[in-house]
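This part of the workshop introduces the protein records we will be handling. A record pairs a protein's sequence with a compact description of its fold. Backbone structure tokens are a discrete shorthand for how the chain folds in space. The question running through the whole workshop is how a given chain folds. The record below serves as our worked example for the rest of this section.
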Amino acid sequence: MPKIESMYAFVVEDIAPDDEGLIAQAVGSMWMPLVGADMKRIDSLRPVAAAIGKRIGKKIKLVKFTNRQEVEVI
């Protein structure tokens, strides 16, 4: 697999217009954020994001992050 150079995330406007949060879905007893590094993954998550947006009555945004910076190696 190639290095991840960009990430996509589904986000929703929170209380204030400049306040956003990641959209997540429950998977068993855990929450999985709707993020991915390629469009194949994003395309598979798009129906979930749309359903969540409809359920909460808010528009969902797809955003792309492209500034890779390694912060820590564990």
Q: What stands out?
A: The first strand starts at residue 7 and ends at 13. DSSP finds one helix and six strands in the chain. Helices lie at 39-56.
